[in-house]
Specification:
homotetramer, alpha/beta, seven-stranded mixed beta sheet, three-stranded antiparallel beta sheet, 14 strands
Chain lengths: ~400, ~400, ~400, ~400
């Protein structure tokens, strides 16, 4: 299979997901498929569930779907809600908007709130900042009849590079004394940014395999709360493939009611092992450090970040806004053709206005510097006037801030 | 990862799926994940769609879901039907029954017809034979108001080893001049048994990756007809993840609306290439020959086949009924522990009564003889009195009937 | 790369080496190559040396050559001997004869002793039995001037399936009070048959990667004794690539003076780990049990074993003599073409008279039964009259004699 | 196996060999080992020989040894020379010196000529320039008795980064009308730098797997001329493993007299296919371009190149001399620990004075920029005062000089 049109060297996959998959995981994916009803499988099933609970920081069940993240969105809605239910969704970017469209398709009544207007650059205000918890609180206080059944927010907006404060959303719901469920999409946040399902009182966390877990796409997750499970017993949207009840029951022995995605589970087990070896705090610190280095580069170039609130810069990806008159997708195309580097496109309202640099998965200082070098050369070749060298700035940052290394070869 | 508790040698995965995955495919699975929105991906997407059309023998769109086969069942129903719709489903075994349960869960009104009663061995008559097309014709003739919106049948019943005559079902519907859609589960039939979506007038064919396509589980398919597509525009079951319309549109360029299962698509491309190299007629003949060899063994043992109608023996798997008083699962456990061989369990009404030998995927005469040797030793160790040597019978058959080999090393 | 002309299934490599390589080892081979002068490499180098010492059962240095076993033969001779030196070599088969030819080429004076004559079947007597230690003792006693500098014998004769008693050879040398070095080729014996370099007083043991160590060919070994090392200081055959002194010195840190065969060393480390997990006594017992099952098959067929002395049947391979008028290579060709099974050819004086079944490497009861089934069908197709079913006999043996399993999945 | 002490990302192997091995080749290495005497193997053997002839640009036999490059040096000498023969060897660096030591060990009389003295930097003059053909001509003219049997030179001196003019050496020998054989070590030159065995009149070319062929170490080569083959019939150094005659004979059918290194041959077949797909002229241009970019970086840093003659800069590696007082190995260690990047050490007379950057194997612009970034940060962290940014200079060069790409995804 020809996946690369360059004669030599590895492709640089610098998207905010799928992230570059470590070789250890690629190898695990290619282990022989086994009987999903045999004793060896049960051991594997229990092992990945225990590992996922550590990653979601929860003591409650985590559902694994053979499906992409979109499927896990549907699982969250279909299990807990009934036709015509109102849900409050907060617009932070393209993926928040896609989730809202799905709610419409499923026959729910989503209320899509967010910051209005565009700024001087012509970019939507709400797509440059995180969730505004106080607006949610206001809205819930106004819903005295508790018509709103769920509040849905995105933790790490993959389309913009903004990581919202989920604990603040929880506090807002509590302050409003509102019984709505809290559902959080942490598809691109989990296992790169700190995420605490239980502590933050999330009812359903949605995530996927191809971001911080460093797997290919194909499996996705719902982490549950007891309140969400209780809601699922009364909810009336039709559900079969997504239904939690049979899965939770079958998972107790390490099995699934329908055929699980065996080889991606091998990869998941390996990924969980890698994260465990490194330790979650080190994993989070690693991504924060990378993000800081990349932002130093963007500053040095004199370009604007998509995210304008320093409190919510994403550790996973950085959105880079193009100067007026520059088509971001043309820049991306040049970079791809000349330097075999894939960057994230501007999605939805940001089409052509910005590109996204992923800094997650199987990366290190040198691969990130390589990616920044590709960006810098490509920007210049595309006629973007740069204030200075971003690569230089990132080198200075990385050299001055050594990364914690947990693993040492014996002296 | 420890997937095998034996000190040496390869595990024998002799289930009717997941089938043993060829090394070529396992290797393809472990290629680096690429950007699912990049140009290389579009080439891959178009390639797998064209290949799948050849396998389904159709000129119409084929949907690929990141989901197991159960999801593709849901896709077929959710896209074409509306709440409360009646569907006629024919009971041929466990998987027909599971599909019927799903229809209920989704708010449809399945009518589950089939042969009644049990036979001398206490086994349900309907689970030992194929779909009875004449009964379907009768039932549809009686439905003068065309309340029945779809006829749902299973092509190759994985739980029993029976391959039903789908062309006959089509003729039955036509003879009754009934407008119902014909939906066929060929999850375990496709790419092992002959299957002709267009010629047989199937409206939705459902299939999966882990059987004749020799992939791990995780992707599944809906092959469509123009009539099914037309029905999907009027159908009112809520659908989002499963919705055909956006997928078909996006597939035109080789892409997907949500994140596709990239690495399983690599495996799929490799599988399609392998099937193409061998040629579908040779693929079908290969499975027929294997099945005949395995049945020769069962006859020599003096044991009963689950399928009692010689016209519909499955080329993919063979169900072997245990004599009264023998727990088939205990036999399976002995064989697994002693000989590192996994066989299919008896499902649903057949629990403990029979086991299933898969003869598909990465197999050849010698691996099948090995599997039969494992069965024969395990049956004896379990106290089953055998009439003769099944291994000997299968050796005689295989030696006397050379397999067609398409590929030759130059002299 | 097209390595198999059959459309489906795994090739059966049933040679006495290269043995079927376990997947764990094939995967290890494909790890990225690292700097052979870096710190990670030193750790690897020390690890494989320690592991090899456990396998050779020695406390002395083991040399690893990037070379096939033939190279290690040369290493043993070139390091310890001088031009014109007499060496006593015992003819047990083709490989003993090849080693003798090498000694000639290197300018040594090999004396090639062995049993004379041929038997009723026209096969050379010496190629059906092991080393006759008492003949060696006689010869050494007659060498009062100690002109003979080394005694060279083959532990497991890969061409015949005879495993000689090395301890007896040591006793013979000692009984003759002769100072000759004892050099032993255990290329195909090591890690399948018991072998004790120190306890048996071997001075140079020669081995290779592609037999009991289950690796591809490409690295080979010299295990040394202090006496051999002392001899190497005085020996005058020219030596550079093979020279022990620099290698031993460099190995102390885990490195090599010239570039080592990095990726085969990854495989070696994995193989040593696998052997360690299972435990050497279990490894030896496993091969003995397999050999017994295969001999039961040959007896049932009514065919003759190449090895006529039951005390020295090889646990690694079994030579099967063809009846008069049957070309063993034609039988092998039929089996290869029809059943994708490779057997060992008759070498040298045995050309066309016999074939060899390897029972080592990544095998288990079922793969061996499959191999025997291939032989049985092929023998019949070739017109060989068989007395009975060897497969049946081997099934009876394996079923009646469970293999020790060290590894268990938790209940 | 733990080969990397960093928590994330790929190791950068920026040595002048082993070079980074492309994934395609690593995968080929892990194909199942086959019978080296079977028909499939013969096809492989013939294929790799034909491919090697294209790479050496020769119509004559090429010997493949299961051995590292050192072994191939020995093969060249042992096949063509007799004890006490004089050979003229030219000192260009560490590897020339090592080959000369081997000649001594084998009982030859090497005359080691070269440029005398050290320069201002205290570095040996001869190790900063290529072979001086006119000195060879002078020396051969003086050898009127033709005592010198061979002239031995290194094409690409891996220890210094100097690529000598081999055609000039041929002209020198011819001008002196001297019958000496011309033997050339192109271990690190072949398949990266232009090399023409036949056109340049080389008698024995020596090469290895782990440089331009992008394989792990473990196989090495002798390309022969008719004159070398003729010489081998008269030569009297003992030879067995290295003997060309039996190998050439056996190779005619695609086989070897002793066990070949099967899995490295899989890798070799894949490497030859990759080089063929790209085309040798593009391969050479690619390395030249990389080398130019790297030298631009060294110039920008204000550091000295090891090679002081611009006519013979190596396309494969660049030696970088450290300012007085800086221990190059300490710099390398810092870079390795902080940035997971391995550079080549200073060898022999250059120990601690310089390091070497390899620019070959599975690389591209971005990986080389990453390597340069690692060097630049490490140099600064080690207190080396730099004149400017080498990374910037290389980015400017690479951006201004697009690489030829042969392979295109269809529009």
């Amino acid at each position: 299979m020809k996946l690369n049109n360059h004669p030599s060297g590895r492709h640089f996959l610098q998207l905010p997901g799928p992230s570059p998959v470590p070789d250890r995981i690629l190898r695990a994916l290619s282990l022989p498929t086994i009987d999903h009803r045999g004793p060896e499988f049960g051991v594997l099933g229990l092992q990945v569930h225990a590992g996922l609970q550590r990653i979601f920081q929860t003591r409650h069940p985590v559902i694994i779907y053979p499906a992409s993240g979109t499927g896990a969105w549907e699982g969250a809605l279909a299990n807990t809600l009934s036709p015509g239910d109102a849900v409050l969704m907060f617009e932070t970017g393209y993926f928040a908007a896609m989730w809202q469209k799905m709610a419409l398709r499923l026959g729910l009544q989503p209320e899509f709130m967010g910051l209005a207007g565009t700024d001087a650059a012509g970019l939507p205000n709400g797509w440059r900042r995180g969730v505004q918890a106080e607006l949610i609180e206001q809205r819930l206080r106004a819903d005295s009849g508790h018509r709103i059944k769920a509040v849905c927010v995105v933790h790490n907006e993959t389309s913009t590079g903004v990581t919202s404060d989920i604990a603040a959303v929880r506090r807002a719901i509590d302050a409003a004394r509102h019984p709505a469920l809290l559902m959080v999409d942490t598809i691109s946040g989990l296992a790169s940014a700190d995420y605490r399902h239980d502590e933050w009182g999330v009812d359903v966390s949605i995530s996927g395999s191809q971001k911080g877990l460093m797997l290919p796409p194909g499996i996705s997750f719902n982490a549950l709360s007891p309140k969400a499970i209780a809601a699922s017993h009364a909810a009336r949207l039709p559900k079969a493939y997504w239904a939690w009840d049979e899965i939770v029951e079958s998972n107790k022995g390490g099995y699934w009611p329908s055929t699980p995605n065996t080889n991606l589970l091998y990869g998941l087990a390996e990924a969980l092992q890698m994260l465990h070896e490194e330790g979650l705090p080190h994993v989070f610190a690693r991504h924060q450090r990378w993000a800081e280095g990349v932002r130093a580069a963007v500053h040095a170039w004199g370009l604007e970040l998509q995210c304008v609130d320093p409190a919510v810069h994403s550790p996973v990806l950085t959105g880079v806004v193009m100067p007026a008159g520059i088509d971001a997708d043309r820049v991306r195309r040049t970079i791809h053709e000349r330097f075999d580097l894939s960057l994230g496109t501007g999605l939805g309202k940001l089409k052509g206005r910005m590109f996204r640099i992923g800094h997650l998965g199987d990366s290190n200082d040198l691969t990130l510097l390589a990616a920044l070098a590709g960006c810098e050369m490509g920007l210049k070749l595309s006629g973007v006037a740069l204030a200075g060298s971003g690569v230089q700035a990132a080198m200075d940052f990385f050299a001055a801030h050594p990364q914690h290394t947990t693993l040492q070869v014996a002296a």
